[in-house]
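Recap from last week: sequence in, structure out.
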Amino acid sequence: MEKLSKIAYVVKVYPRFSQTFVVNEILAHEEAGLPLNIFSMRLSDDTRFHESLARVQSPLHHVLKPRGKANDFMVEMRETSRLFPAVIRVIEENPQVLAGDMQQAMALARAIHAGGIRHLHAHFGTIATTVSRLAAAMAGITYSFTAHAKDIFHESVDREHLRRKLEDAATVVTVSNFNLKYLCRKYPGAAGHLVHIDNGLDLDQFVYSDPDERQALVLGVGRLVEKKGFEYLVEAFAGLVLKMPQARCEIIGAGVLAGDLQAQVARLGLADSVKLLGPQPQGEVRRKMHQASVVAAPCIMASDGDRDGLPTVLLEAMAMGTPVVSTDVTGIPEILEDGVTGLDVPQRDSGALEGACLRLLRDSELRKRLAENAREIVNQRFDIRKNSIELRALFDRLLAGRDH
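Predicted structure tokens:
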């Protein structure tokens, strides 16, 4: 494992409540004996932490965005160029990069040198990858990154910058076959080193239970943002409670649309049936999933192009025996086969969503059949211990290639 001991993970913000997949991955590497360094580009202002975060042993370092004084930039450049003469060339070849991002890259390059780090792996093809790419070029090491969804599809993505990151990386991981095909088509110059590795779960934390005897509860979990489509779930429930008055809907999460959703609940007279619970710790989310008959993820492609890659909440529900209803956004059809591992509804179709949820609330045999099939696919493809082996093998190959 010696070759694998000099890896650093680079993220924009650590920890971040909504990015459990990063913590899952780090914990799986640590369990396998791979020590990591974690670099965060920003201080976290998130006060909501998952219990699993306390288990992370890898040291956290901050490479913070500087205040931006011109003299500070020159000092950083001189200090870094003493270690890495390539700094001047990297600066000259990247005139589009903001001075603050370049300063962070220089600081990261010096940290690489101090820690003997030989490979950087970033999550999301945004600032973390921008800084990793530059630092790696300065220090003469390799970098890779995992591309998820917003960093690929959002309207704010600078396609030329993303192309350079994809092509310069030693390899690029993405989390669905949909993403893989899209990136290969849009960026053919990077196609040779793009790979699909699924996100994973620690399945010991998501215990399966038979969904035969469940509450008449539809559960939604996720950030309260447009791409999650929760407004359609609230709308669907306005019709559903007329047919099943005892049914309830609970939505766990925080976000910019919390006020809008609460106003929608009030407008539709659903205050007794639909509850917005705010953010909850992992243990409480798991408890709610074990109670629910349905987890609904009515994902949509947002107006700014943003969309989910493959929502972790679907994997968690499927692992725990809770039937899922979702849409055809990006990688979701790769795990949700309609009538086999869940129920599929069109985007923005509250009527179809109502019907699918109602079917599952009423039909315990359907719930059981879908849940058993879903748990099987999660066992096969989304065990983080298995999937992290693929990542470590990838890192091993990259480091071995530099040794020859």
